[in-house]
Amino acid sequence: MHFYNEKFALAQLNKTAAFAITNKWMRESMFIRKLHYKSTKDTWLKRNGYEISADITKYYTWNETLGKYDVHDIDYSDCYYQRNGSYYKIDRLERIPDPVDENNNVIPENRYNVYVKAVDVRGNELPGEETKKFVRTINSNYRLWEVLGGTGSVELDETTGKFIDSEHSIEKVA
């Protein structure tokens, strides 16, 4: 990007570069993982600087005919990850309502119940295993990426039917 203004004798030349940070890079480099953390750790804020009360289980599309937004659920059930040699599937995320103070102002906590099921190497639920529930605060891109598997993100390979390392947690956040 550049500009030149003859009236004020001003000139500017900006050079930039863009590259994607991937789960693969983060698995291989602590430096890249720290870079990812530093660039995604900031809490989601409103323009006034206060933390936003975000519902990451929904997305909105404009309905031109009705002149309003339609609300849709975000499906996280295609997210798998590996931890300590075991595989897990995210069953669903469920928003925990934010508390309200004595003046009826919402106090953003952005807490979610994260429901996870243990699966085998082919993504099949393990018999007798119950769905586990974890409570997590998700108030930044980094926290969302972690909940969706982080560097342990995997997906099913169509040819082998087994899990392979994946960029799915990064793609869901983007």
Average pLDDT over all residues: 88
Helix content: 10-25%
- How far the N terminus sits from the C terminus, by CA atoms, comes to 24 Å
Q: Could you tell me the strand content as a percent range? A: 25-35%
Question: What is the count of distinct domains?
Answer: 1
Low-confidence stretches: none
Sheet with most strands: 6 strands, antiparallel
SS summary, helix count: 4
What is the topology, as strand order, of the major beta sheet?
Answer: 8-7-6-5-9-10
Describe this structure in words.
- By secondary structure, this protein is of the alpha+beta class.
- The protein has one domain.
- 17% of the residues lie in helices and 33% in strands.
- The strands form three sheets. A six-stranded antiparallel β-sheet has the order 8-7-6-5-9-10, with no helix packed on it.
- A hairpin with a 4-residue loop joins strand 3 and strand 4.
- The radius of gyration is 21 Å and the shape is globular.
- The chain starts with a strand and ends with a helix.
- The model has no long low-confidence stretch (mean pLDDT 88).
